[in-house]
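Ticket #4471: structure export looks truncated?
Reporter: QA, pipeline team
Priority: medium

Steps to reproduce: submit the single chain below to the structure queue and open the exported record.
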Amino acid sequence: MSALLPIAALGSLAVASELRGRPARPGATGSASSGQRLGFVLLVTAAATAAVLWPKRAQAAVAPPRTDTPPPAPPEAISVPEAPPEAAPAPEPAPVRAGRADDPFYRALLRGIGAAPTPAVLQFLYAWRQAEGGTARYNPFNTTQRMTGSSAYNRVGVQNYPDPQTGVNATVKTILNGRYANLVAALRAGTSSRAMAQALAASPWGTGDLARRVLAGYEAGSTVKAPAIATAPGATAIASLDAAPGVA
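Actual output as written to the record:
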């Protein structure tokens, strides 16, 4: 609108100048001559106005609308840490060795509780025997179960048994008395000596965690140092237990 005012003023001045300063041509009426000049000036004024308005209209058509609101910021990337890979369980240790002289006692014990003499089970029994130690006759795990013909080995009440079969029967009776269900389950599963040692450590048996520590020594390369099962002079040999049909 401000650009139109000077142009309109110029057109008005030109019309006034034409009307005042120029005489009429001979032979023409004053009204016709003035009208022609007025039309000419108005045409020039209209052309100048169009010349000013057209670029502005064109610019308004192509120029993007202005806005005072800044564009939204892109969302921040969220960094998700990768989960650490799960550690693979350590392999079960290989059995230390088989064919020991006391194996008939261990096999008879396992028959009594319904477990198989797998290498893992025998290895656990060796570790358990080594953790217990002691020289009570036919009593490798120091049970206090009293039996016919047994006698006290120490003040705690650990028993001496008169023969290997009585020792097996006493140990089976203790293990199956209902207080060692997890140990029985691990022995019957027969697959993991670690699981057997952990079940023993969690039970009321007095060995505690010692069998697990001995077993860890076997895994690290230590040799088996399980004491031989003590026997009674003149009693039936432990080897005879392999011919026994089961627990009496």
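Status: closed, not a bug. The export was complete when the record was re-opened. Leaving a note from the reviewer for reference: Confidence is low (pLDDT under 50) at residues 1-21, 23-32.
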